[in-house]
Write a structure and sequence with these properties.
Distance between the termini: 70 Å
Shape: elongated
Largest sheet: none
Radius of gyration: 22 Å
Number of strands: 0
Strand content: under 5%
């Protein structure tokens, strides 16, 4: 294949056949080349909805450490997205969620919360 990324396409179109440097890529170019023109506003709108959801979650429960951390990580990654690809923030956000999930299940301090989350069968209770 001649082109393996949107950066290769942009280099060929903007700089010609043998450039000595590259122009890189961005979110809009990646979405456009992968999914077409109509998908650009749709996917960027969905991205905005995701960030708004993270912001609303922090607003509803400002004392939640994991919500605040997830929101700040989301905000930082979205701020960097104009220079990177659309899939750039997925891996760091999943690592944040995995870290908090592991902390929740491995922490002895949170053992009481885990017991509250487990379903109780009321039919067996005397």
């Amino acid at each position: 294949m001649k082109f393996t990324s949107s950066s290769d396409v942009l280099n060929a179109v903007l700089l010609g056949p043998s450039p000595t440097w590259g122009v890189g890529t961005n979110v809009i170019a990646d979405v456009y080349m992968d999914f077409g023109l109509l998908s650009v506003p749709v996917l960027l709108f969905l991205l905005g909805l995701g960030v708004a959801h993270a912001q609303n979650a922090v607003t509803r429960r400002p004392s939640s450490l994991w919500r605040a951390t997830f929101y700040l990580t989301t905000f930082a990654l979205v701020a960097q997205m104009p220079r990177y690809a659309l899939s750039f923030p997925v891996r760091p956000l999943l690592w944040v969620l995995l870290l908090f999930w592991a902390t929740f299940w491995l922490s002895p301090v949170l053992a009481g919360r885990r017991q509250k989350l487990e379903p109780v069968d009321e039919a067996v209770t005397p």
